[in-house]
Amino acid sequence: MSLTNILLPGLGIATMTLTVTFSALAENRIPDEYKTGGFFIGCQAYTFNRFTLFEAIEKTALAGGKVIEFYPGQKLSKEEPGVSWDHNASAETIQKVKDKLARHHLHAVNYGVVQIPKDEEAARKIFEFAKTMGLRAVTTESVDAIDTIEKLVKEYDILVGFHDHPKNPNNPEYRMWDPNYVLSVVKERDSRIGSCADTGHWVRSNLKPVDCLRILKGRIISSHLKDLNQMGEAHDVPYGTGVSDIPGTLEELRAQGFTGNISIEYEHDWDNSVPAVAQCIGFVRGYGAAKGW
Questions:
Q1: CB under 8 Å to 215, separation ≥6 — which residues?
Q2: In CATH, what number is assigned to the domain containing residue 156?
Q3: Phi-psi region for residue 138, left (φ > 0), alpha (ψ -120 to 50) or beta?
């Protein structure tokens, strides 16, 4: 709301109140048609890292996912095993992936975890790739490149989420496991920079996901949502059967107005994980339906 002086013919100067509304966060929003249970849920292709990208797309669709998150370095297809998928892909390869996504009615939403260089020209390749693929966000742990990241986030209007791996006693310099540290990195930066909340790695660090999400309130860009069989050293289990409080996590994300992707990154039973992934998606579908989301 602001007061503005204007000149009115025959009346001189008058003061009018003008209301101007600005979007606090302009972003490449994911179309609502890709929601399941109130969320944009699908797979991080790393779930199927023993398969090609094309197979990961097929398996994500088979499990009921509507969105997919890429990671760098996955082989493209059985037909082209020598071609890797990342931000250096040729225009021809990019078009093949777009066509494959369209055939399986999947929407690509994210890319990572990828190292973003400090060098602007090198970092720009990642953002150009994300723009070409229509991605909403990129996932990284490149804290040292935060200045470059912020500049390119503003230029490309592509979000960046800082990912967390587990606390590592052998590497005390690694701090991304701590949501308070992630918050310290992003809180004074553009609002399109925040957290890729890997809830499973928080559990492996003996942290409660809901508590971590609250620390990072308003800064959750995306999530690698996991349910684990126990706190600490553990393995993935279908949603709702472990200790990660998936219902509480979904409630907190909903309360925060979360609009990003939930990527199932299922790192167990690697060769035959589609049934478990489908069970995870089914949990979110059913929980959201019960809540009227």
A1: 179, 180, 183
A2: 3.20.20.150
A3: beta
For 15-24, 68-77, 121-130, 274-283, which range has the lowest pLDDT when averaged over its residues? 15-24
Q: pLDDT tens, 64-99?
A: 999 999 999 999 999 999 999 999 999 999 999 999
Asked, for residue 165, whether it belongs to a domain, the answer is yes
Q: How many Å apart are CA 40 and CA 293, to the nearest integer?
A: 12
Distances (CA, A) of 35 to 56, 183, 251, 265: 19, 28, 16, 18
Distances (CA, A) of 237 to 116, 145, 247, 262: 31, 34, 15, 16
Which residue is listed with tokens 């990671």?
71
CB distance 228 to 203 below 8 Å: yes
DSSP 85: E
pLDDT at 28: 82
Cα separation, 95 vs 114, in Å, equals: 21
Q: Are strands 261-264 and 220-225 parallel, antiparallel or unpaired?
A: parallel
CA 224-225-230 angle, to 5 degrees, is 120
Are 164 and 201 in contact by the 8 Å Cβ rule? The answer is yes
Instruction: State how far the Cα of 164 lies from the Cα of 82, in Å rounded to an integer.
Output: 31
Tell me which residue of 227, 111, 123 sits closest to 161, measured CA to CA: 111
Reported as a single tens digit per residue, the pLDDT across 141-197 is: 999 999 999 999 999 999 999 999 999 999 999 999 999 999 999 999 999 999 999
Which residues, other chains included, contact 131 with Cβ-Cβ below 8 Å and sequence gap of 6+?
Answer: 156, 158
Task: Give the domain extent around 259.
Answer: 23-291
86 in any annotated domain: yes
Question: Total domain count for the chain?
Answer: 1
Q: Is the peptide bond before 113 cis (omega within 30 degrees of 0)?
A: yes
State both tokens at 193.
């920079």
